[in-house]
Specification:
With 59 residues, the protein is an alpha+beta fold. It contains one helix and five strands; from the N terminus they run ββαβββ.
């Protein structure tokens, strides 16, 4: 099977075809929240998954 950036291209083509045939299945609703803590630190929440901390400071 053909790959692009480590992803099986046939799988992507199958998903695209499915959504073209059934566009109502392609609708997705979700949200994310990023809360700044201090400096370069923040807390990220996506789709109700437990928050993760991020520190974007340069080593």
């Amino acid at each position: 099977m053909s790959q692009l950036n480590g992803i099986e291209t046939q799988i992507i083509e199958n998903v695209v075809s499915r959504y073209q045939e059934h566009p109502d299945e392609a609708i997705s609703s979700w949200s994310s929240t990023v809360l700044w803590q201090k400096g370069f630190q923040s807390t990220i929440s996506v789709r109700g998954i437990s928050p993760i901390s991020a520190d974007e400071s340069w080593p």
